[in-house]
Structure formats: C-alpha cells, structure tokens
Design goal:
heterodimer, A: alpha/beta, Beta Polymerase, domain 2, 17 helices, globular, B: alpha+beta, 2 domains, six-stranded mixed β-sheet, about 35% helix
C-alpha cells in the first residue's frame, strides 16, 4: 500500500513543515477531491502549524472553510424549521450524522463538509412526516415507481426528499441498515439514550422551545462505524475513518467508561464486527493508541483468517486518498471487493441479483438513448454560473 | 527558468509536448493553472491567445489542474465529444470536440467561481484607463463583452471580461486579463474596429451561438499583477437606435444589482455584505443606455479624464 500524502498529513500534520511546492500541490489535489481540506486545516490550526502554510494554499483553505460555514448555516436554518414542524406533529425525531455533529457542537463538525440532513424516526410515523414535508415544499427525489418500491420494501430509509426552492435534501430513516438485511438492528436499543440538545434555546425561550434530539455518544459512534463498514463505495472512506477518529478521541476524553459502553451496545445490537473494524483500522491507519478495554476487545474478537485478510487488504487500500495520483491495480481490486462486500451486506443475494440486473439494464437503455449534449450537469451551488458569457 | 518568461518563447512543438505530457503551467492573474490536453485545437488556441502569459513550472504552487479530454467509447470515432476536468472531477456534460477551446475557457471560469472565495466575485467586465477603473456588470442584453472589447481596443487596460475579483479587505480590483469571449455579430463588429485584433478559432453552434475569443493586449497582460481602486460601476444596456443616455443610479439600487451579479455573495455571508457595502460607498454608479460605438467611446474617453 502506498501511503498518500493526504494520509501522511492526517497521521502527522507536522510533515508540512518540510513541504516543497510540489508536495503542497499534491496535498491540495488529494485533500480537495476527498473533501478533507477544511478538516486538514482544522488539524493544522489545532497544532499551531498555520504559519507553515503558503499563502496560495491558505486561500484555498479559507475558501473551503467559507463554503463549509455556509453549508452549516443553511443546515441550521433548515433544522429550525424542521424542529418546529416535528413539535407540531408531536413526533420525536433524531438527527443523525453531519447534522447531529453540528447541532451537538462536536469538534468533528468543524470543517466537516456535508449538505444532506439525516433524520431517524419510528417507521409508523413516516407517512405523517412525509405528508407534512410535502406541504412544506419538499418532494421525493425518486419519481420512478420501481425506485420507490425498492426503497420502501428493502431499505432503511424512504427515497430522499428535496426542497423545491432551497434544494436541501433530507434523508428520512427508520433504521440504520437496510431492513431486508438478515442481521436486522433493533433500532429502539440504539435510539434509547437519545439526548436533547440546544439547551441554550430552552433558557432563551422556555415556553415555546423546539427540542432537537441526537443519539447518545456511544450510539452516535457506533452508527458512524456501522455505516462506514457496510458501505460499498468508499470514495469518502478516509474521511469516514477520520470522523471516527475525532469522535472517539472526543468522547473517550470526556467519559472514561466510553469504550465499555461501546462494547455493551455493540453486543446488544449484534454489531461487534463494526466496532472491531473501527478500532482495528483506527490503529492500523492512523496509529491511534487505544485504551485497554478496546485493545482487549480487538484481540479477543474472533474472525476467520481469510475474511480478516480480505478485510485488511480492502480497507487498508481504500482508507487512503482516492485520486488519479494514487490508483494502483491493488487499489482497484480493493474497490471492487468493497463494492461487492457492501452490496452483499446490505441485501441478500436473492434480492441483490435482480436489483443489479435491473440497474445494468437501465444503464444500457440510458446509453442507447442518444440525448443531444447540453452543457452543465452540476453547478447546483451557483445557478449564476449559467449566465457566464450570456450577456 | 528565467523570470517572466512568456508562452511566446516556446515553439508549437514544445507547447504541444507540455500540454500532452505533464501539463502547461501558466500564471493567469493571481491564479496558476496547469493545463493538459492532446487536442490540436487547444494547442493552437492556447498558443495564439495566451502568448503573453507568464510561464511557470511544476515547482511552483498550482491552483487548478484542468484538462480537456476526448470521451471514451465507440462514439469518439463517429462524433467525437470532449469533457472538461478540474483535476479528476468533470462538472459539465460532454460537448462536441469542435468546442474544445470555449469549453476550456468556461471550465477555467468555473474553477475560479467555485474556489476563489477570498475575493468577492462579480459577473462583470473590468477595465481601467488613467487609473480610473470601471466595473461593467453583465445583465442580460447589456452587450458587456462587445463594449469591453471596444474599450480594450481603445486604450483601456483589460482587467477582466467575465469576472471582477474584489479583495475582501481592501476592495481593490485584481486583474485576470483573460481572453474576451465574443459572440455572433460582435465578432464582425470588433474585427472591423482594428487591424491588430487576434482571434482564436471561430466556433459555430455552441449553445451560445458562434463564439470566438479575442486575445487580450500585451500591455494588459504585462500589468496583470497591478490591482486598481474601484472608481465607477456602470450598468450598460444596449438599445438599438437609441441616443446615448447616462443616468446616475442610486446606491441602494446599485447595491442590489451588484448582489444579483455576484457569484459568491451568499457564500461569503457577512464578509460579502461588508465588501459590497464598502464597494458601493466608494464608487460612482451609473446606468448607461447606448447604441452608437462612437458615442459610447466618447463617453468613456471623457470619463477617464
């Protein structure tokens, strides 16, 4: 495995002290494509290394931080509206992932790029939420009946909904793993200790206060780990592992019994493997020193040698920069393995094969339809870009 | 490498070699681009249009790695298409191969608009004469690029045809001196103005009509590193057979129009508001309706004195 310059800088930010211009160029490219530039900057600031960053690179970092701050602001505004809606419907909704880190004001939120809002609620509340959101201008992103059926029958979420004016996307979950999965999670165990946050708001406005809920620390960490180690596409894998790294060191420094709580919860929901992988690769990839309980847990965890070797091969290659400068055949093989592993974990074969056949068929149809080329696929961030040249 | 070596010091073979292999590194205003492409039309146009730009190397810090590549698959033998890449990422859908150079230009604009949030970015032309700068925002139907080319051919220094880069702290205008993109009739109008104009190849049937790029003057490129104080914002409007008419624009209206023409006002949040406010505070704001070239040139000539 080749250690990318991005991974070296994440492991040991002080390496930038001896960087040449071409090292910086490479780091900027790899970090930007991993959407980890603002994360790196956060590490540099924490370790007082900013004076070693050339001005040109600082401009890119600042631009990225400005963008992240803008996204965070947008998400906070959406949450305010959503919380009011949830209170009126009397539905307890738990924010997950990026939104939760932001609302709980965790160090992990600093410089973390995300834009979708993820929520978790009871399955029988879904239809009420869906109707209420539609009335507020959110619409389903999937219009195809088959897609709708796929999500609703097999997945742990309904098709994402997007606000028709603001473009924000909300993912509505009733579980954290596909419900067709053989290893179904009892979600009530995970959401049991959910915390109310934004206590400041209670003080400001005690009578008319909309509570926001996030998962308890151990559930939050475990959810992040389960998500990462069931994922088939690991383009953002390094960022996912870095998330776990920051979450773990934060929670662990606040609570001595954090590792024990993690182990207990993992056993309750039968997700020991995700926890094992999380600790194993925090150690292997980031050289993190783990507490005693974690080391014992990792050492005692039983797994078939072949499966462990395959997992090591896959994850150590993929927890790295995914960039044209780092691709090797081993990397490509690891990506293939992860793809199949992810799909098989999420869906039993009897469902997966028809699903993949249908997807390939649709791609083929798409390919033969010779649509005339039009400019501009993206630029969702800035519709004004379309005006360029258009005076 | 000697300081300030320009692209014109390289022969076609060398330019083509660099574009094909590791990439040609050019200083484009405050940004450094590494450009890669094996398409002959990119080689020809870059050589012609960017001749005066400063050459840099891979030992310099590089802001953007851009490339134009042919799409893969059987289609490339029948109706070849091309893609723009910003490093590994392709933000646009493919276009016919004939539009390679315009696509490169759009792609370079996209890179700046998406990543240069240390400036307030306005969709507008910027020119300067005798230390007096004008910002010409690009509302639809303004004839901004044509007007910009006219002024650039009449002694005005070109800072930018597409984008004003406004420093968030000092409000100074920074230059790009990129080629001016002209469309349809404007190409003829501008070529008739002067014998010294150098155009890139004429590309028909883009989604903006026929396009050609006018090479920026050598002087404009030489002075690209010199920022200038903002002096006036003029909102141009081309109206057939209309005598020239200049009206002062009240500052509140100007403020709103500037926001409408900004690429990153919302992203910049408070800094965006403060910069627009500071900008509006220190400039004159006018609305200009025109049709005759002579009249409009005379107006700007007077303005610069």
């Amino acid at each position: 495995m080749v250690t990318s310059i991005l991974l070296s800088a994440l492991r040991n930010p002080a390496v930038i002290k001896s960087f040449s211009a071409s090292d910086w160029n490479l780091l900027l490219r790899q970090a930007s494509s991993a959407k980890m530039l603002a994360r790196l900057a956060y590490n540099f600031t924490k370790l007082d290394l900013t004076c070693h960053i050339p001005e040109k690179i600082l401009h890119h970092i600042n631009s990225e931080q400005v963008k992240v701050a803008h996204l965070h602001q947008q998400v906070r505004q959406e949450v305010q509206e959503l919380d009011e809606l949830f209170r009126k419907l009397k539905i307890k909704t738990i924010y997950l992932k990026g939104t939760a880190y932001l609302l709980a004001d965790l160090p992990l939120a600093q410089g973390r790029y995300f834009s979708d809002i993820d929520i978790l609620l009871n399955k029988d509340e879904i239809s009420r939420i869906e109707i209420a959101l539609k009335c507020k201008g959110w619409k389903s992103q999937k219009t195809d009946d088959q897609d709708q059926a796929y999500y609703r029958n097999y997945m742990h979420e309904i098709p994402p909904m997007q606000h028709i004016l603001r473009g924000t996307i909300i993912d509505i979950h009733h579980n954290i793993l596909p419900v067709c999965n053989d290893n179904k999670i009892d979600i009530s165990l995970l959401s049991a200790g959910a915390l109310i946050i934004a206590e400041k708001n209670i003080l400001d406005n005690p009578t008319n206060y909309d509570p926001s809920y996030v998962l308890a620390p151990e559930a939050m960490f475990l959810h992040s780990a389960i998500h990462l180690f069931h994922e088939g596409e690991l383009e953002q894998g390094l960022r996912g592992l870095s998330d776990l790294d920051i979450l773990f060191s934060h929670f662990e420094s606040n609570d001595q019994s954090f590792s024990q709580k993690l182990i207990k919860l993992a056993q309750q929901i039968n997700q020991q493997q995700s926890l094992f992988f999380a600790w194993r690769y925090l150690d292997k990839v980031f050289n993190r020193a783990l507490p005693e309980e974690a080391r014992v847990f990792v050492a005692q965890y039983q797994m078939q040698t072949v499966r462990l070797l395959t997992a090591d091969f896959t994850f150590t290659h993929l927890f790295n920069a995914h960039h044209s400068t780092t691709v090797t055949w081993r990397f490509t093989l690891a990506a293939q393995l992860a793809y199949w592993r992810g799909h098989l974990l999420r869906m039993p074969l009897r469902l997966l094969i028809p699903h993949l056949c249908r997807k390939s068929w649709l791609q083929l149809i798409e390919f033969t339809k010779k649509e005339p080329a039009k400019i501009n696929k993206a630029d969702a961030l800035d519709p004004r870009f379309h005006q360029l040249d258009e005076d | 490498m000697p300081k300030n070596q320009t692209l014109s010091s390289l022969n076609t073979h060398e330019i083509s070699k660099r574009l094909n292999k590791d990439g040609l590194v050019l200083a484009v205003g405050p940004f450094t681009f590494c450009i890669k492409s094996s398409l002959p039309s990119i080689v020809n146009n870059v050589q012609k249009i960017y001749a005066d730009f400063q050459l840099l190397s891979h030992d310099d810090l590089i802001d953007f790695y851009v490339s134009i590549k042919k799409t893969k698959g059987i289609r490339r033998f029948i109706k070849p298409q091309i893609n723009f890449y910003s490093d590994d990422y392709s933000p646009f859908l493919p276009l016919p191969a004939s539009q390679a150079f315009p696509l490169l230009e759009w792609g370079m604009n996209w890179c700046i608009a998406q990543h240069a949030h240390h400036y307030l970015l306005l969709h507008s032309a910027v020119l300067e004469k005798n230390g007096k700068s004008v910002i010409l925002p690009a509302q639809s139907g303004s004839g901004k690029s044509t007007l910009c080319a006219l002024l650039a051919l009449n002694g005005w220094r070109l800072l930018s045809d597409e984008m004003a880069l406004i420093d968030l702290k000092s409000c100074q205008l920074h230059a790009l001196a990129r080629p001016i993109s002209l469309k349809n009739e404007s190409i003829k109008v501008i070529s008739a103005q002067s014998h010294n104009t150098v155009f890139g190849e004429i590309v028909d049937d883009t989604n903006k009509g026929t396009i050609s790029h006018l090479k920026p003057s050598t002087v404009s490129v030489e002075y690209v590193a010199e920022p200038v104080r903002p002096f006036a914002i003029i909102f141009p409007k081309y109206q057939v057979n209309q005598a020239i008419n200049v009206q002062e624009t009240d500052k509140a209206t100007a403020f709103m129009s500037v926001i409408e023409n900004s690429f990153n006002y919302a992203v910049l949040a408070e800094a965006g508001f403060n910069t627009v406010a500071a900008l509006i505070d220190q400039v004159q704001c006018h609305t200009l309706t025109y049709s005759s070239t002579e009249e409009v040139l005379a107006f700007f000539e007077e303005f610069a004195h």
